[in-house]
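Q: My labmate handed me this sequence with no annotations at all. I'd like to see what the chain might look like in three dimensions before we decide whether it's worth expressing. Could you predict it?
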Amino acid sequence: MFRNHDPDAVLVSRADPADPLASYSKHAFHLDGEAWPSVEHYYQASKFDDPAIRDEVRNAPHPATAAKIARRRRRQVRKDWDDLKEVYMTRATYTKCRTHADVADTLIATGGKTIIETSQYDYYWGCGRDTRGRNVYGRVLTNVRNRLREKAAEP
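A: Here is what I predict for the chain of 155 residues:
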């Protein structure tokens, strides 16, 4: 399945709640004046300007449910979402790592390795079945890892 990737790469699945680097992991954090149960909750809720929809997504019992609610409301997604979605994913992931030292340590422990999001069907966030996907989530994690290192090096 992932035959063309770097054999030393770190493989991550956004949808694996047991993986601390996943957007579905239940590592709560505060951002934009609200408590968020997971990165996925924050990311999905940020698609909407309507506070009622944002609250519905934020209060979903599981990250997959939050994503499902957002899909049902796709006609109400903010117009500038495509321009901002990576920013929101990065902010949430960075905040999760700053809130949970164990998650930050896990990410930093990946060293300089390539991080690959392994979704077979997601060619934007993941590498896709044929590894030709954009792997944006892997790049988000790499950028957050670099920021965490920079922050740790500050006096």
